[in-house]
Design a protein that fits this description.
790 residues, 5-stranded antiparallel beta sheet, 29 helices, 10 strands, 9% strand, globular, disordered N terminus
């Protein structure tokens, strides 16, 4: 057995791990030896869940059904949340329907998980040593997070009920932004005892749950991009694949994350959480679970490609680089036997990958497909040398694929048809075939899981070649310098928004305080964001104030009957002449600047009412809005936009289809605040986001936060690297996820969402405080567990 494998079972100098030395009860921060605290936590979580359910807007049967089924499954087995929770967190978001941008179904799912998990803490199996390590660091971390919670509660108590203003200006925003870190710690108190009870099962279910979450998110992204609509429509094959392979649009996917209604990098952080887990799972599992991991990796990689975020692309590349670096380090003895000619062959084949963008520009997707198949053919042929090294079989296969690529170039509507482009493409295909033959004759890839992982990665490389070679990314590359200058200027304005004084420097402005502080420091830049607020006046009743903003829309998701005349009545008032835009649209979370939006709207001239309420009546034809079934289109909404120069007060909104007396709008009189209403900022996002993770930590938590959070994250990264190199698949996945998110954080803040923050800090806690049981972790999978030398 090699030295790296023996680290987990023997002594760990860094953390004091001893594997079998101690056998005292353990398992959780509040489990095992502290049943009273565990029961108190469960009762508190159940009470909070009860109040949230009691206060939640009516009409969401799916929520109660999911909570009931999820609770029953968690009672049957305490491991179930490992499978289901990632998929629910990444896809189930009712905020655009309910309007609850504060405490919502996200908190309900976590409260159910925590309460039932604490009630069902399993006992550790005999022979497994203590699971939790680095207890001194853990104590400091718990004390610091408790301090953040106390500060958050002082800023504003948890707000039950409807929102009456933008959530970013609400008094409890500090708690809402802090709860991701707190949930990450509390979720760890469930994971530790499960790991102590059955390490192998806990690892399997954690990896499978991440793959299920990645697959579910990929389905949402495919729906969002209109892939299902095109695939199920009639037409030529290229029309059916249009949405799937369209990487020239400016539209960036958002999934179902309502947090991205003001932009941000929530989905980028989540994608860089699931990509490493699916990568590690491809090597760890065999059989059906490995195929699931491959689908999860392809789906999450497609999501990365659809994000059009340069930093996310860089994080994806760093993830793959470190992943292969770990695999190569695990095969040090094999690499030592390679000759200079072998290294040259590998370098030549890797260099060919850089030509895939050129292939896409010359031949489109057919050429990319042909080149990807040629690369995969070389890898498969090396696994079966009996047939693969016979040139009379290999060269004709390469030739047929090259002809397919040239055919794509000759029949493409967008590629140049001249002789030079054709000869250039043919030369690239000849290089791929030549280097492929060299690879087959020098290397022999073992058949099995590693082979199919390699094939998957090569085909994915072809996909990324089409993305990087497309018009959209070429345009993004040319604007790097300009965008960087804008970002640096924004960061300087962020620092200007901080209060002066030593208290701010050491302790920061507080979690979630950036939008409010930025609006105070730079009021002109915040005007385009607009604003909404519901007032409850004893004399005048409830009404909505819609502040002017060029980039603000207030909408409610409603069922729209296509090709129907709607009657809209709206009671409003204005101190000066203004205008209002209202109508129906199909939209998800964000629009893009060049989108052909499916909308039907009217512009209403609003005269000064001198404080009196005036009713306006508008008739709108819905046209094609809502004509397709839900799985082929985005949700339909009714929206309001203040297009004037002054604020407009709205007392009531009626929307009635022709011949139907019922009002299609819920809470049209705003007696429930902003329930069922949700607001969107499509284009201007800098006033909402700091756009740098490290600057955000300093702005919100100060120097002390930078030291403590940076120290904990740094220790987790260091310890995760050591465990990943020793052959721990779960540690490898968690470590790569943390590193990838940190790379995304250079030009964005993926952790300003509670969902992404929860996943990130959960992994931090696992890496830093888990005493991995090496002898019981790995499955009998030669592709990973036995890949080390010796």
């Amino acid at each position: 057995m090699n030295k790296s494998v023996s680290v987990g079972a023997g002594a760990d100098r860094e953390t004091g791990e001893t594997g079998q030395r101690h056998h005292r009860p353990h398992g959780s921060l509040i489990g095992g030896g502290l049943p009273m605290l565990r029961w108190l936590g469960a009762i508190t979580a159940l009470a909070a869940l009860f109040f949230l359910l009691l206060d939640y807007p009516a009409g969401f049967t799916s929520l109660y059904l999911i909570l009931a089924l999820y609770s029953a499954a968690c009672l049957i087995t305490p491991y179930f949340w490992l499978l289901a929770l990632p998929a629910l967190l990444l896809t189930y978001d009712l905020t655009p329907w309910s309007g609850r941008a504060g405490l919502n179904e996200f908190d309900m799912l976590l409260l159910v998980t925590l309460s039932l998990g604490w009630l069902r803490v399993p006992k550790s199996k005999p022979g497994i040593g203590p699971v939790v390590c680095n207890r001194n660091v853990l104590a400091v971390w718990v004390v610091y997070l408790t301090g953040l919670l106390v500060v958050a509660l002082q800023q504003g108590l948890p707000q039950l009920g409807s929102m009456h203003t933008l959530v970013y200006y609400a008094p409890d925003i500090t708690l809402l932004q802090t709860r991701g870190m707190l949930y990450g710690l509390l979720l760890s108190t469930l994971w530790f005892p499960l790991y102590g009870h059955d390490p192998r099962r806990c690892q399997r279910w954690t990896l499978i749950g991440a793959c299920l979450g990645a697959s579910a998110l990929a389905l949402v992204i495919l729906w969002e991009r209109g892939v299902f609509n095109d695939l199920l429509s009639s037409g030529a094959y290229y029309q059916r694949l249009r949405s799937l392979l369209d990487f020239s649009s400016t539209y960036r996917v958002t999934g179902s994350f309502s947090e991205m209604h003001t932009g941000g990098e929530t989905i980028d952080g989540v994608l860089m959480w699931v990509v490493p887990f699916s990568l590690a799972s491809m090597l760890y599992f065999r059989g059906p679970w490995q195929w699931l991991a491959m689908l999860a990796f392809l789906g999450s990689s497609y999501g990365v490609a659809s994000s059009f975020t340069r930093t996310t692309y860089a994080a994806y590349g760093v993830c793959l680089l470190f992943f292969f670096g770990v695999l190569l380090a695990r095969r040090r003895s094999t690499l030592a036997q390679l000759h200079a000619y072998d290294w040259l062959t590998l370098a030549a084949n890797l260099a060919v990958l850089g030509l895939l963008g050129t292939v896409f520009r010359l031949s489109g997707y057919i050429g990319v497909l042909a080149s990807g198949l040629m690369l995969a053919l070389g890898l498969v042929a090396s696994a079966y040398p009996r047939y693969g090294r016979r040139l009379w079989l290999l060269l004709p296969a390469y030739g047929l694929l090259a002809l397919l690529g040239v055919y794509g170039q000759l029949t493409s509507k967008w590629a140049d048809q001249g002789l030079v482009p054709t000869l250039t493409l043919a030369a690239i295909f000849c290089l791929i075939a030549l280097f492929g033959v060299f690879f087959v004759r020098r290397f022999s890839c073992p058949p099995g899981p590693l082979l199919w992982v390699g094939v998957t990665l090569l085909m994915l490389s072809a996909l990324m070649g089409s993305v990087l070679g497309g018009h959209r990314m070429s345009e993004r590359v040319t604007t790097v310098t300009t965008d960087l200058e804008k970002r640096v200027d924004h960061w300087s304005r962020v620092l200007e928004a901080m209060n002066a004084g030593p208290a701010t420097i050491w302790f920061g402005m507080g979690k979630g305080q950036f939008p409010y502080a930025y609006a105070l420091a730079h009021p002109n830049s915040a005007k385009s964001a607009g604003g909404v607020r519901v007032f409850s006046d004893p004399e005048q009743g409830d009404y909505l104030r819609l502040v002017t903003g060029s980039d603000l829309k207030l909408a409610q998701r409603v069922k729209v009957i296509p090709d129907t005349r709607y009657q809209i009545r709206i009671r409003l008032r204005a101190t000066e002449d203004s205008s209002l835009t209202l109508g129906f649209c199909e939209r998800n979370i964000l629009y893009a600047s060049d989108m052909n939006v499916m909308c039907s709207a009217r512009w209403v001239k609003v005269r000064s009412t001198n404080g009196d309420w005036v009713e306006h009546e508008v008739r709108i034809q819905s046209k094609r809005v809502g004509r397709k079934p839900p799985w082929k289109r985005w949700p339909t909404v009714f929206y309001l936009k203040n297009a004037g120069a002054v604020a407009v007060d709205i007392e009531h909104v009626w929307v009635q289809a022709n011949g139907q007396p019922a009002n299609s709008i819920r809470n049209g009189g705003f007696r429930q605040g902003l329930d069922y209403w949700f607001y969107y900022n499509d284009f201007k996002h800098l006033q909402w986001h700091i756009k740098n993770l490290y600057l955000a930590i300093y702005f919100e938590l100060g120097v002390l936060g930078v030291i403590l959070v940076g120290g904990v994250v740094g220790m987790a990264v260091y310890r995760g690297a050591r465990k990943a190199l020793s052959g721990e698949p779960l540690a490898l996945a968690a470590w790569l996820s943390v590193v990838s998110v940190l790379v995304v954080g250079v030009m964005g803040n993926p952790l300003d969402s509670a969902r992404a923050s929860l996943l990130f800090y959960w992994l931090i806690n696992i890496l830093l405080f888990t005493r991995f049981q090496r002898h019981s972790l790995c499955e009998p999978t030669p592709s990973f567990a036995d890949s080390g030398g010796g």
